[in-house]
């Protein structure tokens, strides 16, 4: 499904970008800017908005044609600050400005009818520059200010009020270790979790971002996670993105994690004990690359029968998986959304685009007898930035 969203985004980018470019160059011309400089702006907008998608598509096609194992990375300093950051900001400014510019067009049409064309043109010129200028300042500023924002959230789940010693779970996902979320950043995050002294560490996957360069480093860093019962993970979709060969990619990530004491569990149930209670954890292999069937979920729930408490861990909680778990397990832990990661302004408020895929984008939800906790993760996907979407790690205290 992700490629459908990417295709729609590209179509909107083309249409919206051409519209914004027309309004911007029209406003500059109305201010008396020379045609030559307007032409430079016109071509500059095309490059900033469409250069990165073209480069990425061409690099993947060429890489496949030449028999490369993986796609070339654009995460170096030059690629980040000369390509990805300008592109991301320009994309956001464009998409956020379009509704305001359309409203401005409507207002100018009214002014033209009630007064005259000259007044309408002045209103449009001032409005276009104010809208684009406002978003051009606000968007990169917020990205840079919140770049390393991270929330440590604590969730208390009471099953037995009489319980005295809680079962403490650390839940982390979407670390997506790479040049931007490097080993130092990962160690700091894991130290925060270790300081809470968890009994068990669970992960929603996505230990790496793209390419094979950080597989071993991510696994070695993850070995710093400490708990009484160990660290267990499901597969995320990015585990499949180290190589063009997705199975090779997932297998290498799994082997590296195993060497460093991290168990990656696929469609299995593991049992843990705490205070005389038996806890069943269902590790569900559900992500963009692999969808777990209803039959498999039924089997796992059947295997967990007799548990005092049941927990389902999945990378992605979507409309297919949710109804298979609600009121059938006690707790669902999921990831994948990054809290939206890029949450543009729509009108006057930021909106999480992840809501296009699931209502469970970030935080804690209660559906019947089932508690759902979705982490916003730590790292980045596609572009190495977050916008109005700080990361998170979770501590869950089960009072059993």
Walk me through what this model shows:
The chain is α/β, with parallel strands linked by helices and 400 residues long. The protein is built from nine helices and 14 strands. The strands form three sheets. It has a six-stranded mixed beta sheet. Strands 6-7-8-9-13-12 form a six-stranded mixed beta sheet, covered by helices on one side. A two-stranded antiparallel ribbon has the order 10-11. Helix 1 (2-30) packs antiparallel against helix 2, helix 3 (77-114) packs antiparallel against helix 4 and helix 6 (215-222) runs parallel beside helix 7. The protein starts with a helix and ends with a strand.
End-to-end Cα distance: 38 Å
The CATH architecture of the largest domain can be given as: 4-Layer Sandwich
SS content category: alpha/beta
Helix content: 40-55%
CATH class of the largest domain: Alpha Beta
Number of discrete domains = 2
SS element count, helices: 9
CATH domain topology of the largest domain:
Purple Acid Phosphatase, chain A, domain 2
- Strand proportion, as a percent range, falls in 15-25%
The overall pLDDT average reads 92
Low-confidence regions = none
Strand count, sense and closure of the main sheet? 6 strands, mixed
Give me the count of strands.
14
Strand order across the largest sheet = 1-14-2-3-4-5
- What's the helix-strand series? HHHHEEHEHEHEEEHEHEEEEEE
């Amino acid at each position: 499904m992700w490629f459908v969203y990417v295709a729609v985004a590209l179509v909107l980018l083309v249409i919206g970008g051409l519209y914004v470019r027309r309004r911007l160059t029209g406003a500059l011309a109305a201010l008396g800017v020379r045609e030559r400089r307007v032409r430079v702006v016109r071509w500059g907008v095309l490059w900033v908005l469409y250069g990165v998608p073209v480069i990425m598509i061409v690099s993947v096609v060429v890489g496949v044609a030449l028999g490369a194992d993986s796609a070339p990375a654009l995460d170096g300093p030059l690629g980040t600050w000369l390509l990805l950051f300008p592109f991301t900001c320009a994309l956001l400014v464009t998409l956020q400005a379009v509704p305001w510019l359309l409203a401005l067009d409507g207002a100018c049409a009214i002014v033209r009818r009630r007064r005259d064309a000259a007044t309408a043109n002045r209103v449009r010129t001032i409005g276009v520059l104010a809208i684009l200028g406002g978003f051009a300042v606000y968007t990169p500023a917020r990205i840079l200010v919140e770049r390393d924002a991270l929330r440590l959230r604590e969730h208390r789940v009471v099953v037995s009020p009489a319980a005295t010693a809680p079962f403490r779970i650390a839940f982390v996902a979407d670390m997506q270790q790479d040049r931007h979320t490097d080993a130092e950043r990962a160690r700091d995050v894991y130290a925060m979790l270790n300081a809470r002294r968890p009994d068990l560490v669970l992960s929603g996957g996505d230990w790496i971002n793209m390419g094979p360069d950080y597989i071993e480093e991510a696994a070695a860093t993850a070995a710093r996670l400490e708990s009484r019962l160990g660290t267990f993970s499901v597969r995320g979709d990015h585990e499949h993105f180290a190589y063009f060969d997705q199975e090779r990619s997932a297998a290498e990530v799994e082997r590296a994690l195993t060497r460093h004491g991290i168990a990656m569990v696929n469609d299995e149930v593991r049992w843990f004990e705490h205070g005389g209670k038996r806890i069943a954890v269902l590790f569900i292999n559900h992500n963009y690359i692999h969808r777990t069937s209803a039959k498999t979920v039924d089997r796992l729930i059947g295997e967990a029968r007799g548990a005092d408490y049941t927990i389902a861990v999945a990378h992605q909680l979507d409309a297919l998986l949710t109804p298979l778990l609600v009121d059938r397990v006690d707790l669902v832990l999921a990831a994948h959304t990054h809290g939206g990661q890029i949450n543009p302004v729509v009108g006057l408020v930021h909106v999480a685009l992840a809501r296009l895929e699931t209502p469970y984008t970030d935080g804690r939800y209660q559906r019947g007898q089932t508690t759902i906790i979705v982490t916003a993760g730590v790292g980045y996907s596609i572009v190495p930035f977050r916008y109005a979407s700080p990361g998170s790690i979770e501590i869950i205290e089960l009072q059993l």
